[in-house]
Amino acid sequence: MKKLLLAAWLCAGTLSTVYAQVGDTAAYLAGVKAELVKQWPKNRTINLVFHGHSVPSGYFRTPDVRTMDAYPIQVLAAVKERFPNAVVNAITTSIGGENSEQGEKRFKKDVLVHRPDVLFIDYALNDRGIGLERSRKAMEKMIRLALKKHIPVILLTPSPDLQVDLLKDGNILEQHASQLKALAAQYKIGLADSYAAFKAVAAQGQPLKELMAQSNHPNRQGHTLIAQQVLTYFGQL
User: Fold this and answer.
1) Would the pTM count as exceeding 0.70?
2) How far apart are alpha carbons 85 and 82 in whole angstroms?
3) Residue 236: pLDDT above 60?
């Protein structure tokens, strides 16, 4: 599966290369990728930190947690395949059921303490409960704190909830995805567009339930689709 994911990531024409991301994906993590190619004794540990809710936590059919199938570990496996001499950690600071306001409150003590080399933030699915304005405020606080410490940030747009029709213009998940795109553009940070990837699958006529473990949690295939969006930032140097 690790090699299959890497092949899907690198091959032209795959979903991971189809969707336009905010900013220059090839250049955004140039400094991190330069560290990843270093060999012992010049290399150092690289920390990829995933902050968010139940999806990066690895929840499938609650309460079942499948850490090894979740996208943070899939990303780690593919990055290690691409950079075999690197020492890399995938650290999840996510909590199931949490929204960005809750994540922001513990950001300094639970996230920054790990000294991320790259920070991924994935809260939009749960931020429906607090609304766009409160979500934006909390997200901006975390983005600013990270950028103040020169940490590259990559925002993730929401993965599906089967109760939301992704093909309906202006649906609530699309609204949150659009807000995250605007934030990424404003702060000149990264964006992994999970929402666009799942929407494209739906538009092709494939039932999204085939990519879901339950209504609001992807299965391994769904997590692979998310991982592919993240991995566009770790391509060729």
Assistant:
1) yes
2) 9
3) no
